[in-house]
């Protein structure tokens, strides 16, 4: 089983355990909204642009609501579980290449919005994958950082991002936690930060990620 499929299965189980009204880290979204978002990504390519482009967000929101009305929460969860769908299921290896991180981040969006949670112990090869992706995408993920960032992976590895001049904040943690930090989940990532207090505060408030 690929890591993407494992995340699908675990996330689907958690959806059903928590129910449609459970909170998530995605502002304004419940578990029901998150499930419909995941189904939309794979099965409604016409609505994908609105995820990133505000001018098209209205259509995406309408499609998301229509998916909720048509399938219900349990139906959407089953569609998430049974994936990959669409192009992700047609092109060999695309699900693992594209959806592993998407599913992991949203799995944690659901887990970490609950009253109690602890970081998962992840397979070493998955942590290694996350570190490779963070290093490769740090320019994109940290492009809106107001300060320089030095990512220190526990176990070895450093990646620099953000502005090259001025203050720099050292962010230390496992690759999975650095990934979540760089994807805009700063307040919920288990990392250590060091640097000027004002610069740390600016980084914590920044809109990081894609």
SSE succession:
HHHHHHHEEEHEH
Count of DSSP H/I helices: 9
What number is the mean pLDDT? 94
| Share in helix | 55-70%
- Ranges where pLDDT stays below 50 over 5 or more residues in a row are none
- Content of β-strand: 5-15%
Instruction: Give the oligomer, counting copies of the same chain as homo and different chains as hetero.
Output: single chain
- Secondary structure class reads alpha+beta
Radius of gyration: 17 Å
For the terminal residues, how far apart are their CA atoms? Answer: 28 Å
- Total discrete domains: 2
Please give the order of strands in the largest beta sheet.
2-1-3-4
Overall shape: it is globular
InterPro entries: CHP03085, DinB/YfiT-like, Maleyloyr_isom
Protein name: TIGR03085 family metal-binding protein
List keywords for this structure.
210 residues; alpha+beta; Nonspecific Lipid-transfer Protein, Chain A; 2 domains; four-stranded mixed beta sheet; 4 strands; 55% helix
């Amino acid at each position: 089983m690929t890591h993407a499929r494992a995340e699908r299965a675990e996330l689907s189980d958690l959806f059903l355990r928590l129910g449609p009204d459970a909170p998530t880290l995605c502002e304004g979204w419940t578990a029901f909204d998150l499930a419909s978002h995941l189904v939309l990504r794979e099965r409604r390519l016409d609505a994908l642009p609105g995820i990133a482009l505000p001018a098209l967000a209205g259509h995406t929101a309408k499609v998301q609501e229509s998916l909720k009305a048509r399938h219900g929460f349990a139906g959407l969860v089953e569609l998430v579980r049974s994936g990959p769908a669409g192009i992700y299921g047609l092109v060999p290896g695309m699900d693992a290449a594209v959806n592993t991180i998407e599913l992991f981040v949203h799995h944690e969006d659901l887990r970490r919005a609950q009253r109690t949670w602890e970081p998962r112990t992840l397979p070493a090869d998955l942590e290694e994958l996350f570190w490779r992706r963070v290093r490769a995408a740090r320019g994109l993920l940290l492009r809106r950082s107001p300060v320089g960032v030095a990512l220190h992976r526990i176990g070895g590895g450093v990646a620099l991002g953000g502005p090259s001049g001025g203050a720099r904040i050292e962010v230390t943690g496992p690759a999975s936690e650095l990934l979540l930090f760089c994807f805009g989940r700063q307040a919920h990532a288990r990392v250590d930060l060091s640097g000027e207090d004002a610069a740390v505060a600016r980084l914590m408030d920044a809109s990081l990620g894609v």
